[in-house]
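## Example record

The block below lists the input lines for one assembly entry, exactly as stored, with component labels intact.
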Amino acid sequence: MAQTYTIAILGGTGQEGGGLALRWAKAGHRVILGSRDGAKAAAAAMEMKATLGAGDVSGTSNKDAATAADIVVLTVPFAAQRSTVEEVRDALNGKILIDATVPLVPPKVARVQLPSDGSAVAAIQKTLGESVRVVSAFQNVSAHHLKDLSHEVDCDVLVCGDDPAARETVVGLAADIGLRGVHAGPIVNSAAAEALTSILIAMNMRYKVPGTGIRITGLPAEQPR
Amino acid sequence: MAQTYTIAILGGTGQEGGGLALRWAKAGHRVILGSRDGAKAAAAAMEMKATLGAGDVSGTSNKDAATAADIVVLTVPFAAQRSTVEEVRDALNGKILIDATVPLVPPKVARVQLPSDGSAVAAIQKTLGESVRVVSAFQNVSAHHLKDLSHEVDCDVLVCGDDPAARETVVGLAADIGLRGVHAGPIVNSAAAEALTSILIAMNMRYKVPGTGIRITGLPAEQPR
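Predicted structure tokens for the full assembly:
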């Protein structure tokens, strides 16, 4: 591992956030689960430590988690995305915010229903301005597979962001949990990754499988980083 | 091959259309290249027959090609999509229209710039109404690889459409040229495939490769069709 970070996972008691937290903690990062309910996050952290048998995992409020972290990861439902960002905004200055938000609109989650601007994550970058480097990633990685530590996750990570160095950090964080991150262009390109998730859900339903994913073909075998 | 079709490829003198035409002709389908310039299409067809050494390929105007075909494929640039559809509209009734349009906005083709409704192809389905079954497909398949008959194309085809039977026909047409088509939901889901193309272009530039593509992971080994 290139570097050890303190990673706050807002929405860390959910499926996707919990899966990422589990794997980053296993890889040796310091993980702080954030939740609207700090006690719930603390309990989830205890459970995660028991599962792992080791690892530096704690749980607290979203705000405290974001404040203590080097890197903040957003894995809350779309409906809570903006309010969560507003809540922790003061703690984000100068940090990388990895936003895994998918703009699913229940109940039709297998149907692409993008926001009017195209990308839910690009909208957050616009709101936060240049003092926070927002990177879009992990939208297509199945929580089902992330949580099962007995196998590797067969999925690439589309990494979009306006700051190439921040993207590169996220590519490295993906590699730390065995995932190949791929530079996928500016933050507006996140629209593709977000929309793709509804297609993956449609495929899960059609083909009766728990978690489809994607692989990028045609890249150099050893990816230049 | 399940069935032999007469396939009109509007924009068949272009890179993507030409690549699909070449492979369908090789597979034994009757292919008619369409172009605004019928003479240019006829010349391209002669050249294609010479390349193949066999095959039923002809070329004519877009309108005549669409009229003679069982299935019409649209591979014109985004700027010509709507006018081409309007031109051949009367010939489309009751047919499947496979629309491979990607809403690229030059010069920033590596940047996702989706139409306000999200999907360029869904907008065509809306225009044409229910008498034409529009299926979105082939947006992510590299023309570079399609035109090189010496190797298989390492890319899946996201197939979106409101009519499952029409989608299934397109899954079959993809299989005829060695590509795996995957049911990806209703026509609005085409937004994801369209946006993804800009990401693939961004990757081609970043990693200096001629044609990235995608594979869907986690599907059953033998896909139910």
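Chain A is about 40% helix and 20% strand. Chain A has a mean pLDDT of 96.
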